[in-house]
Amino acid sequence: MNNNELSWDSFIAMGYGEKKVYKKKEILFHPGEIGKGFYYLLAGEVKISVISREGHERDIDYVTPGELIGVQGMQNEPYTYTAKATISSTVYFFSNLMFNQLCAKLPEAASVRTNSLIMKVRLLAESINILTAPAEYRLAHFLYGLYLKKEDPKIKISRTSLGHFIGTSRITVYKIIRQLEQDGLIEINKGYIYLLDINKLKTFLESSLQPSHQACHTKN
């Protein structure tokens, strides 16, 4: 099989990976649990969250189909975060033993995993870089990131979840959403957030952190 044709879906088709189905709000693993492998999300959505020093839950990522979950388990290390399904989700668990067997048969499989890890590291680095950015920038960045992952301008997410992700209150989220609506960037309708102008949203993100940007930032 050509290396360009290899993917997690092809490994699953070959019989590798243990299929697991999680219901909405069901937890894949808790912090402190020793990992013995990693997960590949085939369908659904999984929320990644941590507990801050102040004891508050903070959502740091929403994993979408095609991504890996629990990569700390590759080194048999304890997980440092909680992974919870936000909707009914199907994952495939690759134990370290199973993946080693796969690599013995198809050495190219190691490259597929490496490429997936590189992507996750890039996303993590990007998330860390915006931790000190204004709250409205973090929220817009999060929405834009979800759009890129899902390739859909229609996003289903609660204000509570948005608050958890950007680390601020629901009141602040409400104020930011109102401002983004007034700016013509988004629209709220029946529990969904619609991104009205992707190019305008991208321009907003590119200009918001420039020193010359004069927009009034929402207080955290």
TrEMBL record:
GO cellular component: cytosol
Signal peptide annotation: none
The UniProt record lists the keyword Calcium: no
Alphabetic keyword roster: Activator, DNA-binding, Transcription, Transcription regulation
Span of domain Cyclic nucleotide-binding: 18-102
Cross-referenced CDD domains: CAP_ED
Stored Gene3D superfamilies: Jelly Rolls, Winged helix-like DNA-binding domain superfamily/Winged helix DNA-binding domain
HTH crp-type domain: residues covered: 133-199
Pfam families: cNMP_binding (PF00027), HTH_Crp_2 (PF13545)
Database matches in PROSITE patterns: CNMP_BINDING_3, HTH_CRP_2
GO molecular function terms listed in the Swiss-Prot or TrEMBL record: DNA binding; DNA-binding transcription factor activity
UniProt keyword Cell wall biogenesis/degradation, yes or no: no
UniProt protein name: Putative transcriptional regulator
Organism encoding this protein: Neobacillus bataviensis LMG 21833
